[in-house]
Amino acid sequence: MENEKPTRTKVSKEGFTWNSFLGLLFAGVVIYPVILWLSLVAGLAVIGIVAPIVTLLLTEIGRIYRRPLTKQETFVIWTQAPIAAGPNGLILFNDAMFMFLLYQAYTRASPLASSLGLTLKIPDWYAPPPGSYIVGPGMFFNKVWLMPALIYVFWSITFKIADMALSMFMYHLYVRQEKLEFPLAQISAEAALTLSERDETKMHIFAVSGLLSFIYAFILYGVPILTLPTFGTSMYILPIPWVDYNYLIEMFMPGASFGIATDLIIYATGFVLPFKAVVGIFIGSVAVFFFGNYFLVKENIWSGYMPGMNISDILTWSQLSFWASPVIGISIAASLLPLIRHPKFLVTVFKFAFPSKRKVRGREWIYLPIFIAATLADALVIHMLVPNFPIWIIILLSTGWSFLYANIATRSLGTTGMSINVPYVVEGAYIASGYTGVDIWFAPLIVVNCGGGQVVQNFKVCDMLETKISSWIKGYFVAAAISSIMSLVYLDFFLRMAPIPSSMYPATQIYWPVNLIYRFLWITRSIKIFNPTTILGGFGVIAILFVIFELIGFDFPIVSLAAGCTTPIPIAISTLMGAIVGLFFKWKFGEGWWNRYRAVVVAGIGAGEGISVGIATGIAVILKSLWGSAY
Questions:
Q1: Distances (CA, A) of 568 to 286, 316, 337, 529
Q2: Which pLDDT value is given to residue 408?
Q3: What is the pLDDT, as a whole number, of residue 445?
Q4: Which one has a higher pLDDT value, 23 or 617?
Q5: From the CB of residue 85, how many other CB atoms can be counted at a distance below 10 Å?
Q6: Does position 359 have pLDDT exceeding 70, yes or no?
């Protein structure tokens, strides 16, 4: 699979069939309430359990009834079932439409909004005024929710159209034209092939790696999940998501971070990523979050550091205090400089984006105009909602930044296997605009980046598995529709038990206020991060390194350094450790064997972890139900 290249000579087959539709429906009807309940009660983001559980179950059922799933159907279920199965925690709602609306209601009615004088300033088209509806079953059938619901539907549909259109453009650009590797594409492809075709050797490797991962994941995740309903608090044998060693180094290197991840998937990712890319990510992360943060504290540039801060706190506040601006320049440079270095490719890109009438041979040219039309439509609606905010800034963000961000994320994922996250660009633009109104912060702005490049990667997997890309897109829209409908059904059910937030759903009382604090810090303009000087400085550092590498003939993926600048240091360290272990396995088992089966190992580890967490989650739901029935 590693060296397989997409080719037009293959006959692509349909992946969205009645079988895959029933798989998505199963995820929405059966798995959704479990995912939603865990989000509301424990704040757990366990959407990762869905793909292996649903896919493995349905492939087994298909074999029992002598109607096995094809690799195309298996891949659509593997990638789209998590979308149909509900929200990924209490902040990332995916396509759970009515969770979005409920959170919008909480935002406006929250005590924090009232204390800051924001309740009356938050527009009615975002959430109706408190008191105009009752939080409970049937609350969304009140006519006051019509405008917020319509705006959400418009935003959701327009977002998906823009994201799919831009993803198709990036697919033709980076998969078909530049032929980037997308190293993680092998994992999804091997998972679909192994579960559908049942090659004996692959199944053995998949099962063994899955079993070992199952046991470890039960220790890591299962114990805290099961002890929560049993004892009222989670007990941890190992810390999640990493072991934090900041306390060991803060005495002599204040501000620096150090730790290692505890999730096996992080280490296994190093098996399939290019070794140079892993090294680049490690260097970038250490440069920023180890030496860089120490320098900022030592020179009193970052004055907000306090002894005892953990890795998560340092990651968040160092970005807010300094790194957000340089990372913008670093990311832009790492994405654009390789393109500028190869002008022939730029000419190809230009001809592809703006073909002459005589050279138009297919529909490829239409994707960019669709993306532009969708984002401009979004800008027009925002201008109608917030007429006093400069529309050119909205267009710059929705159309311009989306296009640039998609290039950055897709090139990074295609080269290194890790996407670059460029934070706080929209927030910084709003503050830099000088606009003092509150309404713009709640506008339905579209900023797409091809799912961090993941959508383009999935299109590449479609090529590898001879699957029609259109079938994957159909599955995506159907899964999103299922998720929206199920969010209404099951949220109404849970609202009949108790209001949300309430003590019945303790995670909402913990995480929603914390998330609002960060959001309102921006709205009240307590944070200012845009610094043109450091943006240019970040660009300049990467440009200098790029020129040096070119002059000495050093073949090194410069984008990996940029990816490392946004990668938490435990992830970077653990991925490098996994890559080194992969080199050992290559020596032990032979390069041919390792290259053939390493993606199967990683897929098995991911499946084993997902099934382990899924079983623990199911038991926890039963225990919680038994506990509740006693009262």
A1: 9, 10, 25, 20
A2: 84
A3: 94
A4: 23
A5: 33
A6: no
Cα Rg of the chain, angstroms: 24
The residue with tokens 């830099």 is: 432
User: Mean pLDDT over residues 469-477, rounded?
Assistant: 93
Q: Which amino acid does the sequence have at 7?
A: T
Count of positions (residues) in the chain: 631
Residue range 141-182, pLDDT digits in tens: 888 999 999 999 999 999 999 999 999 999 988 888 888 888
pLDDT at 4: 44
Q: How far is CA 229 from CA 16, 223, 244, 616, in A?
A: 39, 11, 26, 11
- Six-digit token string for 371: 């993306």
Rounded to the nearest angstrom, the gap between the alpha carbon of residue 277 and the centroid of all alpha carbons in its chain is 20
Nearest to 577 by CA among 131, 318, 264: 264
pLDDT at 219: 92
For residue 29, what is the DSSP state? I
Q: What is the dihedral of CA 373, 377, 382, 388, to 10 degrees?
A: 80
Beta strands in 326-383 (DSSP E): none
Contacts 24+ apart (CB under 8 A), 619-625: 619/226, 620/38, 620/225, 620/226, 620/228, 620/229, 621/34, 621/37, 621/38, 623/226, 623/229, 623/230, 624/41, 624/229
Distance between first and last Cα of the chain: 56
| Residues with Cβ within 8 Å of residue 60, at least 6 apart in sequence | none
Which whole number is the average pLDDT over 541-564?
86
CA gap 506, 493 in Å, rounded = 17
- CA–CA dist 15, 5 (Å, integer): 20
3-state helix, strand, coil in the chain (%, to 5): 70, 0, 25
For strand 259-261 and strand 242-244, is the pairing parallel, antiparallel, or unpaired? antiparallel
Give me the pLDDT at residue 355, please. Answer: 61
Q: What gap in Å lies between CA 563 and CA 282, rounded to an integer?
A: 9
Determine the Cα–Cα distance for residues 202 and 116; give it in Å rounded to an integer. Answer: 58
What digits encode the pLDDT tens for the residues 481-518?
999 999 888 888 888 877 888 777 777 877 788 778 77
Query: How many whole angstroms from its chain centre is CA 93?
Result: 12
**17: which DSSP letter?**
S
Mean pLDDT of 303-314: 86
Phi, psi of 221, deg, nearest 5: -105, -35
The per-residue pLDDT for 515 is 79
Rounded Cα distance, 461 and 439, in Å: 41
Two tokens, residue 400 = 């311009």
Neighbouring-strand partners of residue 259: 244
Cα atoms in the 13 Å half-sphere on the side-chain side of 100: 22
Confidence of residue 626 (pLDDT cuts 50, 70, 90): low
Contact indicator for 238, 222 with CB cutoff of 8 Å: no
Is the distance from CB of 501 to CB of 111 less than 8 angstroms? no
Under DSSP, the state recorded for 359 is G
Q: Which residue has the tokens 């059910």?
A: 493
Longest CA pairwise span in the chain (Å)? 75
pLDDT at 328 over 80: yes
Q: How far apart are the C-alpha atoms of 265 and 51, rounded to whole Å?
A: 15
pLDDT tens, residue by residue, 366-394: 888 999 999 999 999 999 999 999 999 99
